[in-house]
Amino acid sequence: IRSTVSEMMPPNSCYQLGLFGSRLNDEARGGDVDIYLEVTDIERQEQQRIKRRLRPRLEEMLDLPVDLVIQDSADPLTLVSKMAKEQGRRI
Predict the structure, then answer these.
(1) Nearest 5°: phi and psi at 44?
(2) Which of 14, 49, 59, 74 is the Cys-Cys partner for 40 at CB 3.0 to 4.6 Å?
């Protein structure tokens, strides 16, 4: 996951990557992989381009559905982003 994300990010970009949701709980039976990507100094249009290209690539690689949340570090946290940061694990 890390190398795939790294390949899709602009050169010299700053980001944090994490997993959250049911895949972190061995007793839960989640159907997808929840990935949290916090970016810094990446324009919104570029964030959307990354999401459009990255999500299908991760799904193909993992052979599982992927829920990709991208959060700009300068923006207020969304509810999902807050949960991902509090309950997730950095990878």
Answers:
(1) -55, -40
(2) 14
Surface-to-core class of residue 32, CB atoms within 10 Å of its CB (0-12 exposed, 13-18 middle, 19+ buried): middle
Give the whole-angstrom CA distance, residue 14 versus residue 62. Answer: 24
Rounded Cα distance, 82 and 49, in Å: 23
Structure-block tokens of residue 25 = 């709980």
Residues 1-16 have a mean pLDDT of 95
- Mean pLDDT, the chain, rounded, equals 93
Q: What is the pLDDT of residues 26-48, one digit of tens each?
A: 676 668 999 999 999 999 999 99
